[in-house]
Amino acid sequence: MSIQVALAGNPNCGKTTLFNGLTGATQYVGNWPGVTVEKKEGKYKEDKDIKITDLPGIYSLSPYTLEEVVSREFLLNGNVDVILNIIDGSNLERNLFLTTQLLELGIPTVVAINMLDVIEKRKDTIDYKKLSKELECPVLLISALKNTGIKELMVAVKKAANTQCKPKNIYAGKVLNALNTIETSLPTSIDTNRRFFYAVKLFERDDKIEAAIKTSADASVIEACEKSMDDDSESIITDARYTYITNVIKDCYKKGSKEVLTTSDKIDRIVTNRILALPIFALVMWFVYYISVTTVGTIVTDWTNDVLFGEIIPPAVDSFLTSIQCADWLHGLIVDGIIGGVGAVLGFVPQMLVLFFFLAILEDCGYMARVAFIMDRIFRKFGLSGKSFIPMLIGTGCGVPAVMASRTIESDRDRKMTIMTTTFIPCGAKMPIIGLIAGAIFHGASWVAPSAYFVGMAAVIVSGIMLKKTKLFAGDPAPFVMEMPAYHMPRAVNVLRSMWERGSSFIKKAGTIILLSTIVLWFLQGFGWEKGAFGMVDDIDHSILSSIGQTFAWIFSPLGWGDWKAAVASVTGLIAKENVVATFGQLYGFAEVAEEGNEFWGQLSASFTPLAAYSFMVFNLLCAPCFAAMGAIKREMNNTKWFWIAIGYQCGFAYVCSLIVYQLGSLFNGGSFGFGTIVGFILLIGLIYLLVRPSKESDTAEVEFAVK
Amino acid sequence: MTLNKVSIGQTVTVKKLSGQGATKRRIMDMGITKGVSVTVQKVAPLGDPIELTVRGYQLSIRKADAEMVEVE
C-alpha cells in the first residue's frame, strides 16, 4: 500500500535539507498546476511505497498568499495520508503556529523538531514527550543536517498512516461555543473529520472555503463573538492559537543560556549596520556580477559560443553531412538552423550555472533576506521588491539568467513585475546595436551609450509605477513582513542541487520552444524566390523574411524607420540581439561585418535621420527580448496568458516610446505639426496619466489556483 | 504610541492591532499579537523597513505596516 506524505513547515526550518535527505535522487521538480509555485515530489529512498510531496514553505494556512492556498488545497484534496510537519527547534513558538492549524485538518500528523544540534549548542531543553501529549500527536527530535533520527521518524510516519485522527481543539469559552454552533449547522455531506476545520475557516469568513463548500456561517454567531471580544474573528482565532502555544511552551521548553549574542547576531550587526550595510552590499553584488557576468561567466559563454558551437561542433557535423552527401537544405537546416540557433541559446547555460551557484549560496546562507531588507525602500516605490535588484543587475549582462534569477522573489506579484521589466535593461547583446547607432549616426558621441542605460532604467521605473496601478497587479496586496533567518554555512548539496534544477529546466526549454522558433526564423530567412524558382537564397533580399518585412514595414513608419531593412533587422534580433547588426550588413550587401558594423556606417547614416536612428535603437532596446530570454520568461511565468501579457506589454511599450521620441523629437527639430505629432502628444499624455493616477489597491487577494 | 515610532533598542508590549485584511493577518501570523513583547533592533540603511525581535526571532516589517500596531 502506498502512503502519501505531505511535508509541511515554515521557510528556513530545514525542510529542503530533510526532503533531499529523505528522497535522495528520486526527486521530481515541477510546478503546482497553473501557478508559479514550485512543487517537489519524491519517494522515500528506503521504502519506495512512501511518496513525499514537499509543500511550499509557509507560516500559516491563511487564504492570502499563493503558497498558502496551494498548500491548503493539496492538504484538503490531495489524498494525504500523513502530514510530516517539520519545525525549527530554535524557534519553537512561531513554528508551532502552523502546527496548530495542521492539527485541525483531521489528518494524522507527525511533528519533527529539527536543528537538534543548534538546540543542544544553546543548552536549551525541549520536553518532546510532554509536547507530544499536549499536541496529541507523535513528536520526534531530528537533525536533518546530521541525518540523526530520520529512520525513527519515518517509522513513526508509517505507523501514523494507519491511524485515525480527530481534529485537535485548542479553543475554549465563547469561541468554542461559536465554533460548535457553526459546526453543527454544516451540511451533513461534509466529512466528519473535516467539519471542525471548516467551522474554524467559516468563523474566520474565509471566502475561498465559503466558495469551495458553498456555505457560509450564520453572521450573527460570528458578530456576537466579535462584539463580546472586541476584535475581528480572524484576529480572535490567531490570538487563541498563540495563547495556546505560549501555555504549551511554558511547560515543555526551557531556554538554556539567557540572551547571549549568537554568531548570527554578530554577523548581522555588521552586515546590516546603518553605515556599513550599503558598502558591503555593493561589494557582494560586485563580486557576484564580476565572477558570473564579466569573468568566469564570459569566458565559459564565449568558449561554448565561439569554440564549442563555433569551431568544434559545426565543422564536425559539416564534414559528416558532406561525407554522407546530405541534401543542401537539410545541411543548412542542421548546421545553420538547429546548431546555430540552439547553440546560441545553450551558450548561456554555463554562465547561468555560475550565476545560479552564487544565488544559491546567497539564499542558503540567509543573505538574500538582507538584500531585500536593504533595498526594499527604493524598489517598492515602483512596485518591485528589494530582491528585484539582483535580476536587474544580472540583466546588464544577459536577460536569460536575469529572468531566471527572479525565482528568489517570494511574492508572486513582485516576481511577475520583475520578469516583465527586467529585460528593459540593456544586456550585453544589445551593445552592438547601441554601438552601431552611436558610431554610424552620432559619430561616436559619448552620450549615446549612457542614454541607452538611462532609457532602460526609466522604462523599468515607469513600467513599475504604471503596472502596479493596473488591474493586473492592483489585486494582490503585498505586505512586506519578512523573517530574517539566522545565518548559517551554505550546504554544498543544497547549493549544487538548486543550481542544477534551475539550469536544467532552462535546457529543457531550449530543446523545445526555442528550437522550434529558431528553425522557423531560419527557414524564413534562408528561403525565398530567386531567379524564378523557390529554394534557398544567397541574398537575404530575396528571402521570405524580406517579403514579409516589406509588407509590415509600414507599421514602423510612424517611428521614423519604415524602411523594410530596419523592420527585418528587428525581427532577426529575436534570435539574438546582436543579429540586428549582422542582418543590416547582409541587407547592405556585406557578407561579413565587424561587431558594430563599421563597414556600412556610411549607407546607414544616409538612410536614417538621427532621430529615426535613436527611435530605432529605443525600440530594439525595449521590445520583446531574444528567444532565449522569451523562453526564460515563459518558463518563469508558467502561464501562457501571462507570457503573452509580458511580451505584448514589452512590444507595445517599446512602440509607444519610440513613437513619442520620433514624433515629438521631429517637432522640436523644426518639423511640421501633423497627425503623427498629435498621436505622439496623446500617447505622452496617456503615459503621464497612467503614471500619476491614484492607485486603487484592494485588500483581497485574487489568487487563482487549479488544484482539483 | 504605534510601533513605527518606537526608538531603536526599546522593548514594548503590543496593545492592539488596527487595520484589517491580508496585511494585518500576515503580521499576526508572524506572531505579533496582543500582549507579546517586541524589541526594535534596527532600521535599514535607507530608513525603512525596521527589524524587530519577536517570539525569539528576527522579523522585518515596513514602517507603514508597523503603524498598525499599537504598543506601550
Radius of gyration of chain B: 11 Å
Residue stretches of chain A low in confidence (pLDDT < 50, at least 5 long) are 698-708
Radius of gyration of chain A: 29 Å
Hey, roughly how much beta strand do the residues of chain A contain?
Answer: 5-15%
Would you state the CATH class of the domain at 3-161 in chain A? Alpha Beta
Low-confidence stretches of chain B: none
Please tell me the overall pLDDT of chain A: 85
How is the main sheet of chain A built? Answer: 7 strands, mixed
Largest chain interface and its two residue counts?
Answer: A-B, 43 and 34 residues
Which CATH architecture of the domain at 3-161 in chain A would you pick? 3-Layer(aba) Sandwich
Strand order of the main beta sheet of chain B, please? 4-3-2-1-5
Strand order of the largest sheet of chain A: 2-3-4-1-5-6-8
Q: What is the third-level CATH name, the topology of chain B?
A: SH3 type barrels
Number of domains of chain B: 1
State the assembly state of the protein chains: heterodimer
DSSP helical segment count of chain A: 32
Amount of beta strand of chain B: 35-45%
Q: In DSSP terms, counting alpha (H) and pi (I) runs of 4 or more, how many helices of chain B? A: 2
Helix content of chain A: 55-70%
Structure, described:
The complex is a heterodimer of chains A (708) and B (72). Among the domains of chain A are: 159 residues, 3-Layer(aba) Sandwich (Rossmann fold); 82 residues, Orthogonal Bundle (Helix Hairpins), CATH 1.10.287.1770. Helices cover 60% and strands 7% of the residues of chain A. Chain A contains 32 helices and twelve strands. In chain A, strands 2-3-4-1-5-6-8 form a seven-stranded mixed β-sheet, with helices on both faces. A two-stranded antiparallel sheet of chain A has the order 7-9. Chain A has a two-stranded antiparallel sheet with strand order 11-12. The relative contact order of chain A is 0.08. The C terminus of chain A is likely disordered. Chain B has one domain: Ferrous iron transport protein A (FeoA) (SH3 type barrels, Roll). Chain B is globular and about 30 Å long. The model of chain B has no long low-confidence stretch (mean pLDDT 91). Chain A: It is a multi-pass membrane protein. Chain A: Belongs to the TRAFAC class TrmE-Era-EngA-EngB-Septin-like GTPase superfamily. FeoB GTPase (TC 9.A.8) family. Chain A: It comes from Holdemanella biformis DSM 3989. Chain A: It is found in: Cell inner membrane; Cell membrane.
